[in-house]
């Protein structure tokens, strides 16, 4: 399958491994029609993943310059992936609202704090994950995951983003059901409640392929069964690779599009001409209406 847009990418302004210019060159080489930059937003807490606040104006200027240079061949959009951390940062934080963004991704990566005040993230490796699970949640994975989805729903209800990123990313370290089984009733109820909130808020749900091409998981974020429920609820989707290197701009898009079609989706969304537009999933390609 062919997909010619990516709305989620990270440059060396945050935790990516290439410059915005290198991403643009690769996008042009691959004949993309749309490229969205979405580096991690500045978080006013030391040690958390995000660009420096003082770099935000430069980020904006670089993207604006590249947009002007490539407007005839590639549409470039300016975004940020904004963490939701209650009382610390959300999509309505002043530095986010003043950044002149075209759209905003909302995400939860931090699910509780250690006794010393530092934050627990499921992105920081197995040892860190185990420590947080036991020290913050007394080893109760159900409680930890319940809090994760509670935070996503809280973000959606109180500080609504345009897109919810990698919905079930907390499964990243759950290979071979190490911590929980996605078929368990309690887990499916949590996910379904969260999907119902996404539908009620009319937010786009990202289909994130990073887990597949990085060999983190065997499925997209979110899992196929979640896509089926999302389709039944009428939740709009867009496909994104969460690229941290230009080579990953179309990573596992074939797989992601096949999963969408298999789940019953007839279309997905691409941002073109400053709005989200339907694109049809027909055969082995997408078609922009």
Describe the structure.
With 289 residues, this protein is of the alpha/beta class. It has a single domain, classed as TIM Barrel (Alpha-Beta Barrel). It is built from 9 helices and 12 strands. The chain has a 7-stranded parallel beta sheet. The chain has a 3-stranded antiparallel beta sheet with strand order 10-11-12. Strands 5-6 form a two-stranded antiparallel ribbon. Helix 5 packs parallel to helix 6.
Structural class: alpha/beta
Shape: globular
- Beta-sheet strand percentage? 15-25%
What is the CATH-assigned architecture?
Alpha-Beta Barrel
The CATH superfamily is Metal-dependent hydrolases
Percent helix range: 25-40%
The CATH topology is what?
Answer: TIM Barrel
Which runs of at least 5 residues are low in confidence (pLDDT < 50)?
none
Strand order of the largest sheet: 1-2-3-4-7-8-9
* Overall pLDDT confidence: 95
**Strand count:** 12
Number of domains: 1
Counting H and I runs of at least 4 residues, what is the number of helices? Answer: 9
Radius of gyration: 18 Å
End-to-end separation:
17 Å
Lay out the secondary structure.
Blueprint: E1 5-6, H1 20-29, E2 34-40, H2 56-70, E3 75-83, H3 94-97, E4 103-107, E5 110-113, E6 119-121, H4 126-137, H5 141-158, E7 163-164, H6 185-201, E8 204-208, H7 210-213, H8 224-232, E9 237-240, H9 253-262, E10 267-272, E11 275-282, E12 285-288
Parallel strand pairs: 1-2, 2-3, 3-4, 4-7, 7-8, 8-9
Antiparallel strand pairs: 5-6, 10-11, 11-12
């Amino acid at each position: 399958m062919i997909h010619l847009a990516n709305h989620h990418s990270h440059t060396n302004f945050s935790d990516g491994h290439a410059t915005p210019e290198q991403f643009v060159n690769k996008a042009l080489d691959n004949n993309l029609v749309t490229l969205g930059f979405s580096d991690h937003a500045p978080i006013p807490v030391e040690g958390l993943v995000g660009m420096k606040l003082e770099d935000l104006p430069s980020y904006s200027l670089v993207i604006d310059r590249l947009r002007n240079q490539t407007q005839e061949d590639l549409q470039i959009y300016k975004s940020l992936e904004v963490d939701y951390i209650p009382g610390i940062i959300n999509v309505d934080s002043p530095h986010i609202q003043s950044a002149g963004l075209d759209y905003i991704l909302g995400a939860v990566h931090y699910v509780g704090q250690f006794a010393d005040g530092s934050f627990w993230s499921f992105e920081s490796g197995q040892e860190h994950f185990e420590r947080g699970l036991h020290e913050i949640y007394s080893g109760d994975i159900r409680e930890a995951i319940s809090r994760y989805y509670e935070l996503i729903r809280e973000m959606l209800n109180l500080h609504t983003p345009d897109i919810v990123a990698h919905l079930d990313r907390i499964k990243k370290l759950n290979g071979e059901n190490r911590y929980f089984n996605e078929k368990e009733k309690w887990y499916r109820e949590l996910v379904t409640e969260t999907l119902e909130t996404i539908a009620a808020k009319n937010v786009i749900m990202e289909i994130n392929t990073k887990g597949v091409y990085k060999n983190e998981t065997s499925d997209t974020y979110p899992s196929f069964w979640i896509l089926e429920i999302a389709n039944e609820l009428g939740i709009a989707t867009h496909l994104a690779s969460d690229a941290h290197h230009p080579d990953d701009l179309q990573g596992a898009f074939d797989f992601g599009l096949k999963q969408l079609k298999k789940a019953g989706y007839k279309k997905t969304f691409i941002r073109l001409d400053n709005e989200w537009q339907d694109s049809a999933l027909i055969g082995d390609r997408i078609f922009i209406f």
